[in-house]
Design goal:
By secondary structure, the chain is of the alpha+beta class. It is 27% helix and 25% strand. The strands form nine sheets. An eight-stranded antiparallel sheet has the order 7-8-9-10-17-14-13-12, with no helix packed on it. Helix 3 packs antiparallel against helix 4 (285-295) and helix 5 runs antiparallel to helix 6 (347-368).
Length: 658
């Protein structure tokens, strides 16, 4: 019997899946290597499963899986073995190696280690349902489609399209009713034979993943250092970012990052902006493409939402109603543009995108009105702590951007004055005194009462422009409050040893698997590390950095967007969250931010200067990063074990600032 349909909130588990990504293509497998059609297994293109089953049998038996590993972001290799020689003892004498690629290619190699020649019948059983991934997620998948024999393979057709598999060499026999391709191979001792399969969606054209192109917008940065985990995390993070790149269909020269695989392979505005911001050390072209793509979605009709970048609502946990990611995206737009300009975004791109940023800032001014706080857009909603942090940063960086680009206007003066007024009332209203020194509440109710739960969203109070140049902008908290916040973030209640928990273990309702009530979210951990480092709290920053690096190692250096926030123990490992995307744009981008934070790179490309503010405690020992981009030119930096930073490569004319 087929399994009962799942509810919409009950996703099939993906935490043990091996996910090869080269968008718009995916290949999802278990460690067994065989694609059985169960769960998420299969090859996908543009969210449709074009092959659900691919099972290999040799001499009538399935080989025994012995190893599975990712060899690249878009490729996995599976090794299996079996014994075919009668009376030959327990040792396998045939090895089957399968290399599976996201773009629909699979290479099957049989190697004989038998002492005599072998004649091996090989069968590949194939099946396809052409189901949408949303139907697979809900458990509403129909039966496999009937196959027909095509050119050197099989074909499946339904109302939504046709998929096919071709084989090289062509099979000796193709049985459509059983979905079976068959060969008979003669292998001498030590010999090998190869079968190559190609899965494709007919009529869709060849897949051209953006990240594989020579014109990829992301630099292939590399990292070295005393800690052997450092180069692996940087390589995997950059590879996953390349794999998640997507072209804007209407403007193919513009690219952005999809939110994550397998569930969110489309555009999530707030997350695309946040990820592009953390990848500015890899160049500004991704930021430019993301900003242009979202500028085309900006609301232009008159009304209270005029100037907003639209976005869906996001669940905020049990203590607050869902939040508006459109608000976050609208406030991130001018921030990313201002910081990208500092990293060397070409002047023509800045001029092109500046009107959109001005409209975002005008929306902020209109939304605040005569008040002080930027309130939740839904009627009767709370005043969120993190929203005020986003708005304050946007106001200050936006005002600087307008002045730097010669857009002298009342908006710049208003933004600075409003930010000053916000700081004054925020430090009073958004602080709960207690014996430990106090803490910021998560929000204020419409009546002004604090929602007291403390969580990782408070890290945005430390983010005053982490990736821009120049002097640090003033924060919403004063010096004493910032010190209390840093101490809280570094406490065992928040620092799990694997990264920062979404909520303190001391809060009622704490759940180590709760995505807003206790799980570690990698993006927030990276923001905390960078914010604490900028504010001068290196001990807390270093502890979180080392914890995130340990978690990355446990996950094969491919960090999921979140994982359980249970306390780290000797010899333990972080528990995966079964619904988390892996890879995910924000967690891959966070890997870049985590590994560039020790150098404290602060460029000001328009002024031709760059400042380094390294972590003096050198929490990872010596670390070097090459292949970065500042003002479009290569940039390399090294931090010694003594915490001294040295520029090893930079553009001509770029001066080291103080």
């Amino acid at each position: 019997m087929p399994p009962a349909p799942r509810s919409s909130g009950d996703l099939p588990p993906a935490h043990t899946a091996m996910i090869c990504v080269a968008l718009p293509c995916l290949a999802i497998s278990t460690e067994q290597g065989q694609l059985t059609g169960h769960g998420l297994e299969g090859f996908y293109r543009a969210g449709r499963r074009i092959l659900s089953r691919c099972q290999v049998r040799v001499a009538g038996r399935e080989p025994l899986a012995v190893q599975a590993r990712m060899t690249a972001s878009d490729q996995a290799r599976f090794t299996a073995a079996l014994r075919v020689t009668p009376h030959g003892g327990p040792d396998p004498d045939v090895v089957v190696e399968r290399t599976r690629c996201a773009d629909g290619a699979e290479r099957i190699v049989l190697r004989s280690f038998a002492a005599r020649p072998l004649r091996l019948p090989v069968e590949v059983a194939l099946g396809a349902d052409l189901s949408d991934i949303a139907a697979i997620a809900s458990g509403a998948v129909g039966p496999e489609l009937p196959a027909s024999v095509g050119d050197s393979g099989l074909r499946w057709t339904c109302a939504t399209g046709t998929s096919s598999v071709t084989a090289d060499p062509p099979p000796a026999d193709a049985i459509a009713s059983a979905g079976l391709l068959r060969w008979d191979f003669d292998l001498p001792p030590g010999g090998s034979v190869c079968v190559e399969l190609k899965v494709r969606l007919e009529g869709a054209g060849p897949a051209r993943p953006v990240g594989r192109a020579a014109t990829s917008p992301l630099a292939a940065a590399r990292a070295t250092g005393d800690d052997p985990r450092v180069p692996a995390l940087m390589a995997t993070s950059v590879g996953d970012l390349q794999a998640l790149l997507v072209r804007d269909p209407s403007h193919p020269t513009d690219t952005y990052l999809a939110a994550g695989a397998p569930w969110r392979c489309g555009l999530a505005p707030a997350e695309a902006l946040a990820a592009a911001r953390m990848t500015l050390p890899l160049g500004t072209r991704l930021a430019a493409g993301t900003l242009r793509t979202l500028a085309r979605t900006q609301i232009s009709h008159e009304g209270p939402r005029h100037g907003m970048i639209p976005g869906p609502r996001r669940d905020a946990g049990a203590h607050l109603p869902p939040g508006c990611t459109g608000t976050e995206a609208t406030l991130l737009f001018p921030v990313l543009l201002a910081e990208a300009r500092r990293w060397g975004l070409p002047e023509q791109d800045t001029e092109e995108l500046l009107p959109t940023a001005e409209r975002c800032l005008s929306w902020l001014r209109a939304a605040v009105g005569e008040g002080t706080y930027l309130r939740d857009p839904q009627p009767g909603g709370p005043v969120r702590c993190e929203t005020q942090a986003h708005a304050h940063r946007a106001a200050l960086l936006g005002a600087d951007l307008l002045d730097a680009c010669g857009r002298a206007s009342p908006d710049a003066a208003w933004l600075r004055e409003w930010a000053r007024r916000l700081r004054a009332v925020f430090r009073r209203d958004f602080w709960l005194d207690d014996r430990g020194g106090g803490r910021p509440p998560a929000a204020l109710t419409p009546e002004g009462r604090p929602v007291p739960h403390f969580g990782a969203s408070a890290v945005h109070l430390l983010d005053t422009g982490l990736l821009g140049g120049g002097a640090a902008a003033p924060g919403l908290l004063d010096k004493v409050q910032t010190e209390s916040l840093a101490r809280l973030l570094g406490s065992p209640a928040m620092d799990s040893g694997w990264g920062l928990r979404a909520m303190s273990t001391k809060e009622p309702g704490y759940n180590p698997f709760g995505h807003r009530s206790g799980a570690v979210r990698v993006h927030e951990t990276a923001i905390a590390v960078a914010g604490l480092a900028t504010a001068g709290y290196e001990k807390e920053a270093g502890a979180l950095l080392r914890g995130a690096l340990a978690a990355a190692e446990a996950f094969g250096h491919r960090l999921p967007e979140m994982y359980a926030g249970g306390q780290r123990t000797e010899g333990g490992a972080p528990l995966p969250h079964p619904a988390a995307c892996r890879p995910a744009a924000t967690s891959a981008a966070a890997g870049v931010l985590l590994l560039t934070t020790p150098a404290g790179i602060r460029p000001d490309a328009p002024a031709g200067t760059i400042t380094l503010r390294p972590l003096r405690g050198a929490p990872l020992g010596e670390i070097g990063v090459t292949g970065l981009r500042v003002a479009g030119d290569p940039f390399s930096v090294r931090v010694s074990r003594l915490g001294l930073a040295m520029v090893e490569e930079a553009a001509d004319g770029l001066q080291l600032g103080v």
